[in-house]
Write a structure and sequence with these properties.
Layout: H1 6-33, H2 41-61, E1 64-69, E2 72-77, H3 86-119, H4 130-154, H5 159-172, E3 182-186, H6 189-195, H7 197-219, H8 225-258, H9 267-292, H10 294-303
Antiparallel strand pairs: 1-2, 2-3
């Protein structure tokens, strides 16, 4: 084990434990407290929660840290079942990093679903039929596989790289980096730009579809007030969900990747900010959705005895509206 500091060693574990508590709670709320208008969108929310728990499991199995060295960065395994084996450890670090890319893919799927609801409502159900599920799964896995390939083919260290980073490892962590599973980006600006292509295209999709969704909701006259309100709530939640990886993974990693080019040592940033932000994503994500969906939020407030349960008489609207 490589012990960086108490904060780095314990906070991701604490966040993962809370993730295993909050996400099952979120799944229960989706299954029991969702409005009928939400329709099959509930299953995408449940899928997101399951992914968050798997993400947290990866955090526990493959804890990582980052060290700046010269003109580059080194991401290495610090503990866990893969720590002692160089080959398995390399696969573990690569797989751990690919969860960031897969979180982008999950968000794209959500944006596409919300886009279809407003623009092509008759095609929405196709997404959750066998062919649609296969397409979404393939898209999701392709994101992860491509990122894993980049890590193992482009960032795996050779002997020259290990010679470069060995002094820094000995100085900072007092260990020989030859026996540590790690990924490294050194000197070559083209790899930095290549690494950013997936995040940049994802952010472009978010902004383009988000703008079109927001514009359509402002112009829509065909849906009932209930459907419009629920669409707005879900879209706000989706925007907040998008901001989480943007500020918790995209911006911190961009800073971590490009700072070494200008000889700025941000080891402290990577281990105190970047890694912790990545660990917090699976926990914050369901909390954001709960906050923006009144049914979920009110239920939690009642459970916490911060609000009294209200008995509400509802009337059934006869205006047809597409499910969410």
């Amino acid at each position: 084990m490589i012990y960086v500091n108490w904060y780095h060693h314990n906070v991701p574990k604490i966040l993962a434990i809370f993730s295993f508590i909050i996400n099952p709670l979120f799944i229960y709320l989706v299954l029991t407290k969702s409005r009928s208008q939400m329709g099959n969108y509930r299953f995408l929310l449940i899928g997101f929660a399951v992914f968050d728990m798997v993400y947290s499991m990866a955090e526990l199995l493959t804890p990582i840290a980052v060290l700046n060295s010269g003109y580059g960065f080194v991401t290495f395994i610090t503990d866990g079942p893969f720590f002692e084996n160089l080959e398995y450890g390399l696969h573990g670090v690569s797989s751990r990093c690919c969860f960031v890319s897969m979180s982008y893919a999950v968000l794209i799927i959500h944006f596409v679903y919300r886009y279809l609801i407003l623009f092509y409502p008759h095609h929405v159900d196709k997404m959750l039929k066998p062919l649609g599920i296969m397409a979404m799964t393939l898209f999701f896995l392709t994101h992860g596989a491509f990122w894993t390939w980049i890590c193992e083919e482009c960032l795996a260290p050779n002997e020259e790289i290990r010679d470069i980073i060995r002094p820094s490892f000995l100085e900072v962590h007092h260990v020989n980096s030859d026996y540590i599973s790690l990924l490294t980006g050194q000197y070559r600006l083209d790899w930095y730009i290549f690494l950013n292509r997936i995040p940049m295209y994802c952010m472009t999709v978010y902004f383009v579809l988000g703008y079109k969704i927001m514009k359509k909701m402002n112009e829509s006259q065909a849906m009932s007030n209930i459907s419009i309100t629920l669409n707005r709530q879900l879209f706000k939640a989706l925007v907040a969900q998008t901001c989480i990886p943007m500020f918790a993974s995209f911006l911190p990693t961009i800073i971590a990747w490009y700072a070494p080019i200008f000889l700025i040592n941000l080891t402290w940033w990577n281990n105190y900010v970047c890694n912790i932000c990545l660990s917090a994503f699976p926990l914050i994500d369901p909390i954001v959705v709960i906050y923006f969906i009144p049914n979920y939020k009110n239920t939690v407030l009642v459970w916490l005895r911060l609000r009294k349960q209200k008995v509400v008489t509802t009337t059934i609207s006869m205006v047809s509206a597409p499910t969410m």
